Amino acid sequence: MTGAGSGTAAGGGFAARYRAVVGERGRLCAGIDPHAALLEQWGLPVTVDGLREFAQACVTGLGPTAAVIKPQVAFFEVFGSAGLAVLEETIAGCREAGALVLADAKRGDIGSTMAAYTTAWLDDVSPLCSDAVTASPYLGFGALDPALAQARATDRAVFVLARTSNPDGARLQTARTDQGRSVAQSIVDAAAAANADGSATAGVVVGATREHGLDLSELSGPILSPGLGAQGATAQDLAVIFADTADLRWLLPAASRSILAAGPVPAALAAAVEATRDEIETALIGPNRS
Questions:
Q1: What single DSSP character describes residue 45?
Q2: Of the listed 19, 106, 210, 257, which one is catalytic?
Q3: Global pTM?
Q4: Residue 198: which pLDDT band, with cuts at 50, 70 and 90?
Q5: 106 is catalytic
Q6: Residues 283, 238: contact at Cβ < 8 Å?
Q7: What is the per-residue pLDDT for 212?
Q8: At what angle do helices 48-62 and 266-284 cross, to 10 degrees?
Q9: What is the CA radius of gyration of the chain?
Q10: pLDDT tens-digit profile of 30-60?
């Protein structure tokens, strides 16, 4: 059975695909972060076999339940080629279950190297192909053009780091450009320009753990907001921090550790997704929700 997250271009850009799955499953991005401490917490060995068992439980519990699933690529890469094979299986399983998969790879480079990253994460020829990928714009937003072009052509998306939750990011992201805007705002504005065709090809990453000081009113694309749960942000915080967002349907809160702590039983993971999603929807309900 082919789920809502499977396939490529279906018309209407990423916007249509995102609206459909969020309309059905609610606003939540569930992370898959198989770091060593969590494998041990689940009673699994810190080996490829443990990784595979962890990932399979996540596919079973999260795949049919969460709107978007975000595998943290680094925790698979640490096991080398065998770990990447597990990641391939995880991406395919989550998409087959109907979720959109956002590969948290944070890629960013120039020229042919960026084009190769684009092929790896956003082209059907690759076994790592996902519905979206995270990317760093700090070699210049224009360096992401190959990824944005591929995403636009196949109804996928690129989520660009704008105002992250880590404290060390503030100095760079709040610095002012020659035009008087913050660096983070300039990234949001560039993403908005990329979305002028209505495709929602360019999402942004804006942390949920503090006020961001950004004007997101013209973005017309998804806002991935990590920090919910283990990092300290609550669903009620989201309603405050993003109160000025023009369309809260684009807000995509993300939680990983707080959900994965419910494992290893897949049914418990599914229940954690549902509970977190319901908290978010209750907190964000209002005039901007449809």
A1: -
A2: 106
A3: 0.92
A4: very high
A5: yes
A6: yes
A7: 76
A8: 50
A9: 18
A10: 999 999 999 999 999 999 999 999 999 999 9
